[in-house]
Amino acid sequence: IYLLKMNKYNTHTHTHIYMIYDYISNSASFCLPNHSTTVRRPFPLSHGTTTLGFIFQGGVIAAADTRASAGGLVACPAVHKITPIHSHLVVTSSGSGADCMLWERILTREIRLYQLRHRRRLSIRGTAKLLSFMLHPFKGTEVCVALTLCGWDKESGPKLIYVCSDGARLQGDIFSVGSGSPYAYGVLDGGLKWSLSKDEAISLAREAVFRATHRDAYSGNNVDLFHITAQGWSQRKREDLKEEYYRDMEKRSKDRRGKIKRE
Amino acid sequence: QLSETKMLSAQGFGDPGKMKDYHYTGPVEHKFSPYAFNGGTVLAVAGEDFAIVASDTRLSEGYSIHSRDSPKCYKLTDTTVIGCSGFHGDCLTLTKIIDARLKMYKHSNNKTMTSGAIAAMLSTILYGRRFFPYYVYNIIGGLDEEGKGAVYSFDPVGSYQRDTYKAGGSASAMLQPLLDNQIGFKNMEGVEQVPLTQDKAVQLVKDVFISAAERDVYTGDALRVCIITKEGINEQTIPLRKD
């Protein structure tokens, strides 16, 4: 209701872009993103992450760390970077924390409105297109979102689509986004096969996030894991990677001791 | 860039440190900044059936103190208090906007906004100024619909999350690890994780602010504590270091 009040243009269903643009820049004209008059901010915003998603025979796995950093400070050690949008779609977010949170809210609202108006659920490809077109007016501004839509369509099965505020919209079988993504890609490319079992896939995703959080300063704390099948999404209990690190050290020192004994 | 090459050549001389001090950069243009940093620290803790929002009362700018009695907690409803620190001008405007929106909600929906609803609304208000943000670090403390304590912490552009405890403002980086340890029992082994009682929480908040006043120049003068329970909001003022 607040959105409609603030909107100076007549809204019909297809000009929601104007609605959102107006919502963003409601009061004074110097709010508009204009390069010559951008105000330098005296504070850093939340950034930096490791998220990943891949498709295998048992569905789609989405995993992410839980650290939100603002400059050099850990602003929050327990953020939810994977958000369910509806029963068969989750979205992993990367980039600026506030941008991702608000754009996910806007996307959820638009998807629900589509469902109510057209009496059928929008496909994952359609959702990605909608999101990409909604973000387009903000290309070139400081809005920084890189979302991976992980879902299951009734018609076309598992889907993984990457959408970012620069305008990219890519469908694929494996994506990793964020400052820790190079490390995650290394682990995933090494171990990913279509024929993995559910447990193997989950442990591969956990391992990829763990290795990325170990090497990337801006990723860390816990790992969130979602598994999407034709029946919907299910969430694995959040796991603290600090314990995982100590278990790994324990295992390595045992191996080393074993090797020395054999020699 | 010019200054970088000058630095590199200065390193050729044995003592780069002194060369940096006498380094001449030429005339530098200072653009008008619409922001100012007025200091202050805010803290909120949520318990089983209570919530505490505390802030210091010092208002500073640069090396001066504007006021020793400018608390940063603002009462929104009977069950919600917000703490705002950062740029005082934006804090005042933001609280006025929130009060207006609360009234609008009350008039159109005939009920008071719950803490969760206020948090969601504040997120959209802050994001509405995504390209010229309110320079305010907000923390909302209150009781949720079930009567349990709730704390919602925000960043300046509207990203928010429900927490059990959070510190914001100039001394937040000093206070947050202490709270992680004492309330969250993080990084401790072999401790019994007892839930926090109201008296222990109030005492902890007072101790934590005394420590903050010792080490942060922008925090001090007095501490205002608002304790929110289902009986209402109880306010206490405790003196802190004035130097």
From TrEMBL, chain A:
KW Cytoplasm (keyword) present: yes
Catalyzed chemical reaction(s): Cleavage of peptide bonds with very broad specificity
Subcellular location: Cytoplasm; Nucleus
Primary location recorded for the protein, binned into one broad class: cytoplasm
Family matches, as InterPro entries: Ntn_hydrolases_N (IPR029055), Pept_T1A_subB (IPR000243), Proteasome_bsu_CS (IPR016050), Proteasome_sua/b (IPR001353), Proteasome_suB-type (IPR023333)
Annotated catalytic residues: T49 (nucleophile)
Gene3D superfamilies according to UniProt: Glutamine Phosphoribosylpyrophosphate, subunit 1, domain 1
UniProtKB keywords: Cytoplasm, Hydrolase, Nucleus, Protease, Proteasome, Threonine protease
One Pfam family linked to the record: Proteasome
Any one biological process term the GO annotation gives: proteolysis involved in protein catabolic process
GO cellular-component term (any): nucleus
Stored SUPFAM superfamilies: N-terminal nucleophile aminohydrolases (Ntn hydrolases)
One MF annotation (Gene Ontology) recorded for this entry: threonine-type endopeptidase activity
Physiological role: The proteasome is a multicatalytic proteinase complex which is characterized by its ability to cleave peptides with Arg, Phe, Tyr, Leu, and Glu adjacent to the leaving group at neutral or slightly basic pH. The proteasome has an ATP-dependent proteolytic activity. This subunit is involved in antigen processing to generate class I binding peptides.
Family: Belongs to the peptidase T1B family.
Subunit architecture: Component of the proteasome complex.
Protein name as it appears in the record: Proteasome subunit beta
Species whose genome carries this gene: Amphiprion ocellaris (Clown anemonefish)
Name of the gene this protein is made from: PSMB11
UniProtKB/TrEMBL annotation, chain B:
UniProt entry keywords in alphabetical sequence: Cytoplasm, Nucleus, Proteasome
Subcellular location: Cytoplasm; Nucleus
Pfam families: Proteasome
Listed name of the protein: Proteasome subunit beta
Superkingdom of origin organism: Eukaryota
Family listed: Belongs to the peptidase T1B family.
Biological role: Component of the proteasome, a multicatalytic proteinase complex which is characterized by its ability to cleave peptides with Arg, Phe, Tyr, Leu, and Glu adjacent to the leaving group at neutral or slightly basic pH. The proteasome has an ATP-dependent proteolytic activity.
Keyword set includes Nucleus: yes
GO biological process: proteolysis involved in protein catabolic process
GO cellular component: cytoplasm; nucleus; proteasome core complex
InterPro entries, alphabetized: Ntn_hydrolases_N, Proteasome_bsu_CS, Proteasome_sua/b, Proteasome_suB-type
Subunit-level organization: Component of the proteasome complex.
